[in-house]
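input
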Amino acid sequence: MLGSTHGTLTTDSRRARVIACGEQPGPAVHGRPAEVDDLDVSGRALYSDVPDLDRLFRPESVAVIGASDAEGRPNTGVTRQLIAWSERVGARLHPVHPSRTSVFGIPCSPSVADLPEQVDLAVLLVADPLPVIEELAETKVKFAVVFASGFAETGEEGAAAQDRLTAAVERSGMRLLGPNTNLNAFEHFRDDLDGPAIALITQSGHQGRPVFALQELGIRLSHWAPTGNEADLETADFISYFAERPEVGAIACYVEGLKDGRAFLLAADRAARRGVPVVAVKVGRTETGARTAASHTGKLTGADAVVDAAMRQYGVIRVDGLDELQDTAALLARARPPRADGVVVYSISGGTGAHFADLATEAGLRLPALSEARQAELHQWIPEYLSVANPVDNGGHPVGDWRGRKIIDAILDDPEVGVLICPITGPFPPLSDRLVQDLVDAAERTDKLVCVVWGSPVGTEPAYREVLLGSSRVATFRTVANCITAVRAYLDHHRFVAGYRSPFDEAPRTPSPSYRKAQALMRPGQQLSEHAAKQLLRAYGIRVPREQLVTSAAAAVRAAGLVGYPVVMKASGARIAHKTELGLVKIGLTSASQVRDAYRGLTDIARYEDVSLDGVLVCQMVERGVEMVVGTAHDELFGPTVTVGLGGVLVEVLNDTAVRVPPFGEEQARDMCAELRGRALFDGVRGRPPADLDALVEVVLRVQRMVLELGGELAELDINPLMVLPRGQGAVALDALAVCR
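output
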């Protein structure tokens, strides 16, 4: 197998810019200039520092520019909240206003230049922040927050204003949160809650409210970063920072768009290496959602299939609803790693258990049958006529006495069980109260996950409000769907991090010999002919059929004899994209006369269609195999991507593809193949032998290497069909289209 292209990296995402080959080495790395070894083969930085945001969240001194205490003024309420927040975090607050001597009894400075000390954080309550940013630069302020709107979210003029703001911030050396942000960073976080915390990142403050409200259920929150338009600090910066915080057990994100796709991947990689789960709602699954998100924050939403694949590559858990974000982040923040991946459903109703088991199994959870010995033990307390294999149905009465706790302990003692889920469809005191208390007590003595679905629509019952929510060990849900989503994410996350290997750890630093061969074939701004595109594939070790390019009927006959009958003949030219539709392909030719006729026919069609040819290809005919497509395209957010899927003339109809963002390794290449709906074709169907999956994976990895090395020169590559032969016989690229930048 071709070596995987994997690098350890840290990320100050503002500095993690794409650096074109041949430019000067880019961002600072751990306080020093980046060297050649800090760049991958495409010239992109691999290493950068995690931003130090301590003084943003815990400043020693704060300046409020535009502070007010005049009743009825919008700035007055904001100033009041900032004063209260500063007191809670122990910061000295300095109001700034040109016409006030004091604000809420605090001495007020007339301008930034008159501040009594250098401040860590400046909060700008002004309509035009640009002049103030330039003033703050002279005072060496570390952080600024801009609430003002009217920037990139409003269109071209606003985007230009945001560009000017960004440039001023970069010149100043300070870091900026916003514009178009809000007061969420300065909320009142409860300090009486224990355990790992959730750190929250949102591009729309309102969308973070359900997660913030988890504090009322006893779940700790440590930070809230409302990123707004992300003129400077972005989602990736906060993921990197939060992943390093010891108190953070999970990171919850509401993302409308990403500023820099690669920076996001660097940050997600850092979280994955640290084992910190990142749970995200990402807007943009539909065209309408993408358009609305762009108007809200001015961000790129990216092609959703690519965003989805990139998140899965780096273990980011994507959920759809805010309720799922809330419940999944809460579970992942607090639950210990699983001892086993088996899930047992325990209920007082056979109907409830069967329904839940169906939904859980369909979602991919493993519900192992308990051993005969374990079932016999359970039948000491549960009537024999009830099923206890999994799900476990206790019939109701045992939960009301000492037997209930015995049953729960026996289930949790099973080595195959990592998660116990008890759906309680409605309160039925006193039995439900006893059941809930037994579950909470059992959870305290085990290191396995205990989940309860409290199905009552009321939610005011003491068993729920006091006992379940009072437990830090039981994960409590209000819906079956959210429970299943969260448990699946919990098990998937821990499987992922246990085997995670950063795809950047072995990222190639220097071009391969293939790159030098390929460069000579590139034609800037042009589409290559099939013949030239196949030479490009050959340069990277991708097998193509025996073939010759000819310019006469006689030469075609000679070439057919050398290639070996039967042959395929195709018109070859730089501007031909769909040869089959134009009749520019002839297959199954078995004689010299057929070859001569085919040559004349192809050249006649080309003249009629006004298609310019560089010749006619006489190719070896390869018949038996699975037709696949492997290619690369450029995503506006993440850059070059690699795609694999079912190929042939019906590729657009089948639309069965998987995509990844380089760099990735062999395991991810195999995962791509496993994701395809038509993956059963690799095993052999209707008497056909199994396909050479290893050869397909090899081609995917070689195309990735090509992408990494030629990303700045290769706009698009499409190998279709790639004929994957029977196992052990390899794969052959029968056709290829390549477009140069």
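quick obs: Residues 480-498 form the longest helix (19 residues).
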